[in-house]
Amino acid sequence: MKLPNGFGSVYKLSGKRRRPWAARKTVGWTYNEEKGKSYPIYQFVGYYATRQEALTALADYNKDPYDLHHDTITFKEVYDRWSEIHFAKVKDTNGYEAAYKLCTKIQNMKFVEIKLDHLQKVVDESGKNTPTLKNLKILFGLMWDYAVMHEIVPQDKRDMIRYIDISRPGNPNSYNREPFRKREVQMLWEAKDSNIYMTVILILIYTGLRIGELLDLKKEDVHLNERWFYVRESKTSSGIREVPIAEKIVPFFEYWLKQDCEYLICTPNNEHFLYRNYYDSYWTPLMKSLSFEKHRPHDTRHTCISLLTEAGIDERVIKKIVGHKGQGVTETVYTHLELPIKLEAINKI
Fold first, then answer.
1. How far apart are CA 344 and CA 349, in angstroms?
2. Is 25 in contact with 3 (CB distance < 8 Å)?
3. Alpha helix locations (H) across the chain?
4. In 51-180, which residue ranges form alpha helices assigned H by DSSP?
5. pLDDT tens digit string along 307-343?
6. How many CB atoms within 10 Å of residue 236?
7. What is the pTM of this model?
8. What is the DSSP secondary structure assignment for residue 100, as one 8-state letter?
9. Of 15, 147, 136, nearest to 74 (Cα)?
10. Cβ atoms 172, 182 nearer than 8 A
11. Which of 2, 50, 158, 209 could form a disulfide with 214 if both were Cys (CB 3.0 to 4.6 A apart)?
């Protein structure tokens, strides 16, 4: 049925979405001189699960346009509107969704009444570490950008986001990194046959890789016969490097190379791991089974550095192996020529 003139329109978006029905209304026109045509300016009312919900929302909007009651819109409503648009543009939404779950105390607050103190309290009471809190701050920034663009709040409200402190003294994100002790490393070796994902922890310890570097490592970059692999993507430019494979972990590489997946480490379904999936489903349970709850994945990197240092390896060689910040450009250019040196070093731990 055709809607009345000036009422607005409802249409279904393509793709698989939770709320595929969009409701919008023309609020003005703009003239394109180059094309000699006028184009409508739309105000999107929202996105809905069914056509009927979209029609109802459009009818409500016509009775009381949102710009007349922006002062009643909640944090949750802004998140729902923003995420419906933003999530269609990004590949991985897990970080945003995890950050949003930390905001339960402000979800039903009126968006215009949320102040810096409210957001800081969410951060301080989250119990999360720096990577998660960075995602939370990014989420706030994107939501407030959306709110400014749609005139829910003025620009000065967006400016407050930069003052959110995610590294306050006493914040739980400020824990100290602690390498695995020798006895703990031995326990990992003793438990390696109990769960194949124990080998992932040992690979991390004996390569010094960041967890993201290992999960994104593709088989095509592994040269097992020559005992090295290439880190193509890393957190830092110095992280792009050639890493030696210690003899004691060669069997682990042999196992993972046989799996039917593009990436070296994969899920039981032979799919690429996302960090959150690996951390929640494997790292945390395995650490708990050995009473190692205090350890985080980055502790394996510190363990590798500690073991190399204890073995008397030159600091410059350690930097080349782990791709540590501070490694200069001149130190990275000819790394392949020094692979035997790095292999000798890694085999000492």
1. 10
2. no
3. 51-63, 75-86, 94-101, 116-124, 130-149, 155-159, 182-190, 198-205, 211-215, 250-257, 275-278, 284-289, 298-310, 315-322, 329-332, 339-346
4. 51-63, 75-86, 94-101, 116-124, 130-149, 155-159
5. 999 999 888 889 889 986 544 433 444 444 478 899 9
6. 12
7. 0.53
8. H
9. 147
10. no
11. 209
